[in-house]
Amino acid sequence: DFEPLTYRCPVDKSMTLTAFADADSFIWKLPVDEGYGKTVSVTPLIIGVNQYTVTAFQGGCKGEDTVDVIGYTRPANDDVCNAIDLQLNKNNGPFSNVNAGIECGEPMPLTGSCTAYCWCFFSSPKNTVWFWFTIPDQGSGYNFITSGFDTKIAIYATKECDSLLLGNYKLIAAKDDQTDSYEAKIINWKGFSEGE
Description:
single chain; 5-stranded mixed β-sheet; 1 helix; elongated
């Protein structure tokens, strides 16, 4: 007996399962019906274990295997166009990026020397969550502070959320490793234009 293969997938997303076997036909036992073929698309129905079984048929022989997909919920602001509206000059949060993922096309600053427009070397986005705000007054300085673990911040200007995923944006600021605990902070930032 083998332990079933285990994967993770948000309950609101689909994933593809493929049987890696040479066989004449395949039948997948899914939670609500059956699927046919080497590959099926599944969407976890519940938070927790969603079990899928595939049976492969070759001549008079058959073999069976099971895949467990752990369904979980993502943060509401995991996708760029579901960004949470931040209220400037107020404490916002707390927020979490637990179970957040990466969207195809998400931007990232250059990596380099951890300056005001770069993330540190070998950085990449992971578990991103998104926020939006509009600058009412370009003369004010604004603070953007994260805490609790190794974080990164990037601030972009764009007219529409989809533009961010298509590369139509302006990088305003980025920060990584502001403190010894690797928490990112942008303090008293005035590099905004009014209405941006």
